Amino acid sequence: MLTIHADSRGRALTVRGEWITAVGSLAELTAGEPRARVREWPGILTPGLLNLYGPELLDGTYHPDPREADALGTAPVTGDALAALPMDDARWGASARRGIQRLLAHGTVAVAGAPVRPAVITAVLRSGLGVVGRLGEPGGVPSLDPFAGLFPAEFAPDREPGSAARFAVFDVRDESELAERGAGTCVATVVAGRLVHRRR
Questions:
Q1: pLDDT, tens digit (0-9, with 9 covering 90-100), for 34-46
Q2: Distance between CA 39 and CA 26 in Å, rounded?
Q3: How distant is the alpha carbon of residue 128 from its chain centre?
C-alpha cells in the first residue's frame, strides 16, 4: 500500500513497501498520488535518531518486564543489580525486545555498535532496527534518549527517494525545541516501511 506521511510543516514522504518513493510537500505528493493513504502527524518529520550505545543498551542492560516492576522497578537494570539476576538466552532476548521498543519510542531507527549475544542479535534483526559501526567507545552515560547524553544527538542519514523508509516524527516545532525537550516527544517511528511506534 502507498502511504504518505506528512508533518505539521507540510513536509511529506511517500512510502511503498520498505522504500521512500517521493519527498516533497504534502500538496505535491497528494496531487501525484490521490489514492494514497495519508498520515498527518503533529510536529516535525525527521530521518530518525542514531543511538550511539547499541551494545550498552541491549547487550549490557536488562529491561524489566512490567510484571517485574515490584521487584526490579521499571528503569533499565545495569551493574551489580544486573549481575545479581539469573540471565539466560530467553531472558536476554525478551529484554532486548523491550529495549528495542523503548528505543523506537524515542525515535531511534539505528544504533551504533553491533550486539554480540545471540538472542539480542536475533531481536535486533527481527525488529529492522539499523546497526552501524562506530569508531571507538562513545563515552558518556548510555541513555534511551540520545538528547540526554554528553554529545549532540545524531540523526540517521537524510531520507530521499530510493532510500529505506526509516524515519521518526517528534511533536515539536523545530529541531531546536527537539534538542531542548528530548526524544520523549516522539509520536511515530517507521522502520522498513512499518509503523513500529505510535504514541497513544
A1: 999 999 999 999 9
A2: 10
A3: 10
